[in-house]
Amino acid sequence: MSSTHSLRRSFALADVNSMYASCEEVFRPDIRGKPVVVLSNNDGCVIAQNKLAKETLDIYMARPWFEIEEQARKLGTIVFSSNYELYANMSNRFATVLSRFSPRMEKYSIDETFLEMTGINTDYSQYGQEIKDTVRQSTGLPICVGFGFSKTLAKLANHCAKKQDKWNGVCDLTTISEQELDSIMQQLPVSKVWGVGRKLEARLNQLGVHDVLRLKRADCKRIRNEFGVVLERTIKELNGEVWLEMEDVLPEAKQVMSSRSFGTRASTLQDLEEAIAYHAAMAGERMREKGLFANGVYVFIMNSPHDKAEYYSNSHSIGLPSPTNSTIKITKAAQWILKRIYKPGVYYQKAGVMLLDTIPAGGLQTDLFGYSKPDTKAEALMSAIDRINKKYARGAIKLASEGVEKPWRMRRSFKSPNYTGDWDELPRVL
How many C-alpha atoms does 127 have within 13 Å on its Cβ side? Predict the structure, then answer.
């Protein structure tokens, strides 16, 4: 065990393997050992797949399902529609388990969480195995864990843990020698570095930077002049310097949005009004979860640019008399906008609502005429609705303007039950 653990800043990154597919497998043990794919909104494209599907099917991210459906069926592939409610709940459970292992953590994405390891003076390889085993036992999710002296190195270590069997799902880059670390970096393409996408990779390749080690040894001044300060900091992080701090509290969003493509095209104003009311309610609920109030509302509607018919897209926004978190007020404003941008005779493919210039409750200011005076009755109503919907299911209480039948609803023909969020869809043991 190295004593440097108590002296240097160090980090861990825990990442769920094939998050969406793994969530489905937790409640369907009968599909383990089979190729599994998860489709996007309206069952259009493949957005996730398990390891076996990657090995047996020629699938790239967002490949249209119809192109490979026949081949996938022949190979016994199990297909699911996206079950975002289930994935979000399982992600929260994953993060809750991780909180046992570090006093500071940052939930970076639905399947990735950083842990501050500074001061936890233990064998990280064993600790990582304990984290991995505990998450698997508590949630059923398989994960990999990487350790490094910076967040960038921890993410690189996580990649090694996931891709190389010798690490057994846990890679600790804090205890190996500089020569061993350089050897590992030399074998990895520069695209494996956090923040290096395809375009940046191509530009780096033109300068002769093809692997991670070359980037680590690059001249920081030249990189800053050519690419900016962000990549310069990445190089310093690869050299074990901490430039990316833990985000204990995520920055407040300035906009909150809800939008979806329709399962079947919407052509009537009534269908669009229902869809806009639904998205206004969703955006309002998300905003209240963050303790925010909106100063404006933006609405857009559009058909597909690939339609034979003429492309039509329109949007509009308005400011509100005072900041609000009331779904009722937001929906009224959104419906007012919709009636001004709606064009008859168009088969609409998508619509959405965005809440603008959001501010926290502490930032509310009163005005001379009292328009911004807090509406305690409206806030109490919204709070009660949110509690009921959280306890039972989203939509248990809703505005009548959202409609009942919802023919425009997103198509999810292969959706699994919401095992963790709906009493009526709990797993049953026979």
Answer: 20
Q: What is the mean pLDDT of residues 47-63?
A: 86
Contact between 5 and 122 (Cβ < 8 Å): yes
Pairing relationship of beta strands 36-39 and 112-116 according to DSSP bridges = unpaired
DSSP character for 211?
A: B
Global pTM value: 0.76
Helix/strand/coil for 147: strand
pLDDT at 269: 92
* The CATH fold of domain 1-175: Alpha-Beta Plaits (3.30.70)
pLDDT at 96: 93
Decide if 106 contacts 247 (C-beta within 8 A).
yes
Distance CA 78, CA 140 (A): 19
Percentage of the chain beyond pLDDT 70 is 92
What would the pLDDT profile of 301-321 be if each residue is shown by its tens digit? Answer: 999 887 788 899 999 999 888
Mean pLDDT of 402-429: 78
| CATH fit for domain 256-402, picks 3.40.50.620, 3.40.50.2300, 1.10.443.10, 3.30.1490.100 | 3.30.1490.100
CA-based nearest residue to 192, from 216, 157, 156, 154:
156
Q: Give the Cα separation of 212 and 142 in Å (integer).
A: 27
